[in-house]
Amino acid sequence: MIDPQTTILFRVRGLSLAIDKYAKHSSPLFQKQPMSKLQGIAAGFLFQHRDQEVYQRDLEAALGVSKSTVSGLVKRMEKNGVIVTAPGADVRYKRLLLTKESIRQMTVVDAAAQKMEADLKVGISDADLATFFNVLEQIKKNTE
Question: Per the database record, which ranges form the HTH marR-type domain (predicted)?
Fold first, then answer.
């Protein structure tokens, strides 16, 4: 019989649920989700790279999802007023840009996320954190 305490699948799922619960209780920003988690992650990526030209293919690579998933995501985000598209340096592709309101909101969200990240790292050494990330990466590779 599988022991949930020593099984990666159960422990990672439990950690994910605990972090979701923590996020919702630590900041009112994360209690109501005006957009899906994937949209939030995409908006975060665009916010972090707002001084660069970002295209749909960049989101595909960053999020690790298919072209069709990102295509639908971009359409929903445009429809919801989160992003706009504009011609890029390569006119064959559209640049993805956060709206001014989205940039304002993401500035607040980013500050809250940075605080939560710092809180989650309390008591964890840099060496332990590096090991943790290495282990997570190996688990991810093992799924491929």
Answer: 28-129
